[in-house]
Specification:
This protein is mainly β. It contains two helices and eleven strands; from the N terminus they run E-E-E-E-E-H-E-E-E-E-E-E-H. The strands form two sheets. A six-stranded mixed β-sheet has the order 8-1-2-11-10-9. A hairpin with a 2-residue loop joins strand 4 and strand 5. The longest helix has 17 residues. The termini are far apart.
């Protein structure tokens, strides 16, 4: 059973995406990411978070979206992904918070692929990112790159 949670919401490529705020540890400057060769479009690079190297998934590339308005600074969300962390590069996407009370009355369904759930509201759908699924995709891409 899925239920409403407080969400960190961002708009990317005509979609509204989110991650549960309980998983968000921090939001950092997206330019703090260091390139990793062979990331295969899924991995933008790595960043450091509390002494740990964290893979940064390139969400615009993963979801086929262009980076947003140049007047905003780029951002990477550092999120818990099980016992690991994943960086979610959201670029210059507009972001905000949405409280679970604001989701009252929204239709909720199980997510597929890199999404844990979807909320359906009058103003459109919100796809909630499954941080563990994105971490696993990034880890697989880095593993494949290291074997090449």
């Amino acid at each position: 059973m899925v239920s409403a949670q407080d969400l960190f919401v961002f708009h990317m490529g005509g979609r509204t995406l989110a991650i549960e705020t309980a998983l968000v540890e921090t939001v950092v400057d997206g330019e703090r990411t260091f390139f990793v060769p062979g990331g295969g479009g899924v991995v933008r690079g790595v960043t450091s978070h509390r002494g740990e190297l964290v893979a940064v998934a390139d969400l615009p590339a993963l979801f086929g979206a262009a980076d947003e308005a140049a007047e905003r600074s780029s951002k990477t969300v550092i999120a818990a992904a099980g016992s690991h962390h994943i960086g979610l590069y959201i670029g210059r996407a507009f972001s905000t918070l949405l409280w679970k009370e604001e989701l009252a009355g929204a239709g909720v369904e199980e997510g597929r692929g890199p999404f844990s759930m979807r909320f359906r509201r009058e103003d459109g759908a919100i796809d909630v990112i499954d941080a563990v699924a994105v971490f696993e995709r990034a880890a697989a891409a880095l593993s494949a790159a290291s074997r090449s």
